[in-house]
Specification:
mainly beta, 1 helix, about 10% helix, globular
Length: about 190
């Protein structure tokens, strides 16, 4: 009789926990044409053909730079948690109106719904002086949908801050994930 009561209490506790959101959210994974991408997989993306990467002041009134070429590469560090974590190994720029370099590559975090954020990335744009911009912990970048990474993000100026550099810039770009093909996020 004592065991039956314990089992009954355990069942009630489980139901109550699930009713109040105690169950974990769907685990995030990446898929290529329906096949789950494993930890350690390499990802490659390039600026979408015929588009440019644009950095402007946050209000959009002053253009900081445009780049006609950009590539991003990284490896999947973890899957199955709240977010897929990708360690960025390279972020390159070309055909820019001002000299642009990546100082720190950082990470991407991709939710099961395709929301992409970044942490620890720092780039420099030389507009007569070097202005450093980057992502803090969990800076929202944009969305991943069927092989396309649409970026529309606000990046903050990083130390050492310069008097002539805008405090924030808006980064707008569209990348095509070239490998693996048709990359999507899901549970």
């Amino acid at each position: 009789m004592k065991k039956v009561r314990i089992l009954g209490l355990a069942a009630m506790a489980t139901k109550a926990l699930m009713a109040f959101g105690g169950s974990s959210a769907s685990a995030a994974n990446l898929y290529s044409t329906g096949v789950k991408i494993a930890t350690g997989s390499q990802l490659h993306a390039s600026l979408e053909s015929g588009t440019t990467s644009i950095a402007s002041t946050t209000d959009g009134k002053t253009l900081v730079t445009t780049c006609s070429e950009s590539t991003m590469a990284g490896s999947v560090r973890s899957t199955g948690g709240a977010n897929v974590i990708v360690s960025i190994s390279s972020l390159t720029w070309g055909g820019c109106t001002v000299t642009t370099h990546t100082l720190k590559t950082g990470t991407l975090s991709i939710s099961s719904s395709g929301t992409v954020s970044s942490a620890g990335t720092t780039i420099t744009k030389h507009i007569g002086i070097s202005c450093r911009y980057g992502t803090g912990t969990g800076t929202h970048l944009g969305t991943l949908k069927t092989g396309k990474l649409a970026i529309n993000a606000i990046l903050n100026e990083k130390e050492p801050k310069q008097f002539l550099c805008p405090d924030t810039i808006k980064w707008v770009a569209s990348y095509t994930v070239t490998s693996p093909h048709d990359l999507t996020a899901g549970a």
